[in-house]
Write a structure and sequence with these properties.
With 500 residues, this protein is α/β, with parallel strands linked by helices. It is built from 15 helices and 21 strands.
């Protein structure tokens, strides 16, 4: 959690020069209630960072701001001039956390990306989703900003999570909004693209006709072009302050004992027999290639993972990191045409997909995207015991106890009976981490596992992962674009380059 002690508040000079004026707002809907009435006066030319821990109420605040919950008390006014229209839907674009993985419906399955081809005409391309180009110069500029030209004819479901993020940003900018709201803008992007996005947003912010609101869980992500900060904690919206004042007075307090306790809980778990003998190979890939029509994702890759390895996988967006992991997990049908051995057994020698998965714990952007059913948190975690997205069998009490144990380890046991879809995105990621750990797997595959977590929960989750790697017979594959997210126990690295 974070605490701010502001002796003086950065006060606005009330005038008519505003874009949003929310005064003492109290929403009608019971799920949209804050601890006290909400106010925000956003001046023209002002760029805002809304900061707070997971579950604090940041996304709910934006929903109130956009009028998704009618007010029982107070008032909400907009002035989008010089835009001709004053309609919110024509002037505001909101890119949410889930948009990192693209839009999905209840029929989406996370294997879809790996088993779709460019010739699947029912799935739209990037060009088709961007629609008719109204401003050719703006289109050319945005394409150049994000280097999207080579993706225009690619099916949307085939984009990596980082490529999807760039597409969503481009789509929003091409609508020429008056106000752009982005939830955790830098997650899923490689280092060069993060730097690019920061400079692009700064350049757009300087033009005057676009204002930006960023929702941030990682406090070190507040970019220099932001001039105001709105802290939110425990469903309470604080006072808006200047960026400099906020950073000068910010004091991040970690619950060190809770993190240490979580580590010790994991270290004290009894060790199960490893899936292979000491010195054995957990994964072996021999000259593995993955192609979609003319596009080469992986080209004759040799890779060996041995028992006890802790691998860091990195590379630019679209380089094939998630594709590589999909081969290991047997989610990609091309894995059966490749020379792959898992736990000493060659793929395609009669084993079922369930035999492959029983020793693997897995979390990924695609998995997060696929959970759209209104299930209780406990059922989401229990589904990891059966390697399913939904829960289709009754779970015995002994297994529920294991689910509760991991929920408590990640500090979210109080979410046990809440709907997965009604908790924050960061809380959802902690639940999916508990799901990956719940069967104490021999091989743990973590694809961008700390996405959307606040500063404290990132430290907690990293500590749990590190403790897991210290146990006998455990092997970990970890994908991240952030060096400081990697466990200290990493002993091997693989960097993938995108095939041009």
């Amino acid at each position: 959690m974070f605490f701010c002690n502001f002796a003086a508040v950065f006060l606005d000079i009330m005038s008519e020069d505003y874009i949003i004026n929310l005064m003492n707002g109290v929403a009608r809907d019971v799920v949209a209630q804050f601890a006290s009435p909400v106010s925000l006066f956003l001046r023209k030319g002002e760029h805002l960072a809304v900061v707070g821990p997971n579950g604090a109420g940041k996304s709910l605040f934006v929903d109130v701001l956009m009028g998704r919950y009618p007010l029982r008390e107070g008032s909400l006014e907009y002035d989008f001039s010089p835009s001709r229209s004053q309609r919110v839907y024509e002037n505001v674009r909101y890119i949410t956390f889930r948009d990192t993985y693209g839009s999905a419906d209840a029929n989406y399955c996370y294997q879809l990306r790996w088993n779709t081809h460019d010739q699947d005409e029912a799935i739209p391309t990037v060009r088709e989703l961007l629609g008719k180009v109204e401003d050719e110069s703006l289109f050319a500029e945005v394409m150049q900003m994000f280097a999207l030209e080579h993706l225009l004819d690619k099916r949307i479901v085939l984009l990596s999570s980082g490529e999807l993020r760039k597409f969503q940003l481009a789509q929003a900018l091409l609508a020429s909004p008056r106000l752009l709201i982005i939830d955790n803008p830098f997650i899923g992007l490689d280092a060069s693209t993060r730097d690019l996005l920061c400079s692009v947003l700064a350049r757009l912010a300087s033009r005057g006709n676009l204002q930006i609101i960023l929702l941030l869980s990682m406090l070190d992500d507040i970019p220099p072009f932001v001039n105001s900060v709105l802290p939110i904690e425990n469903m309470c919206v604080g006072e808006k302050v200047s960026r400099d004042d906020y950073l000068a007075r910010l004091d991040i307090v970690y619950n060190v004992s809770a993190i240490k306790n979580a580590q010790n809980r994991v270290l004290m778990l009894p060790s199960a027999a490893p899936a292979v003998e000491n010195g054995g190979e957990v994964v072996r890939l021999n000259k593995v290639s993955v192609k979609y029509d003319e596009r080469v994702i992986l080209n004759e890759l040799d890779w060996v993972v041995e028992l006890g390895d802790v691998w860091a996988l990195s590379g630019e967006n679209g380089a094939g990191k998630s594709t590589l992991l999909s081969l290991v997990c047997a989610d990609n049908l091309q894995s059966y045409a490749c020379d792959i051995a898992l736990f000493g057994r060659k793929r395609g020698t009669g084993e079922s997909i369930w035999e492959i998965k029983k020793n693997i714990g897995y979390v990924s952007p695609e998995m997060h995207r696929s959970y759209l059913r209104n299930l209780p948190v406990i059922d989401i975690v229990a589904s990891g015991l059966h390697d399913s997205i939904g829960l289709y069998v009754n779970t015995p009490e002994s297994e529920l106890a294991a689910c509760d144990w991991w929920l408590e380890t990640f500090g979210i046991l109080e979410l046990r009976n809440k709907s997965f879809l009604k908790i924050s995105s960061g809380e959802q990621r902690l639940v999916l981490l508990a799901r990956a750990f719940v069967k104490d797997p021999s091989l743990l595959i973590l694809d961008e596992p700390l996405h959307g977590l606040d500063t404290y929960n990132r430290r907690l989750a990293r500590a749990v992962i590190e403790a897991f790697t210290h146990r006998r017979g455990k092997t970990v594959l970890f994908v991240s674009h952030y060096e400081n997210e990697l466990p200290c126990t990493v002993n091997k690295r693989l960097f993938l380059k995108r095939n041009r």
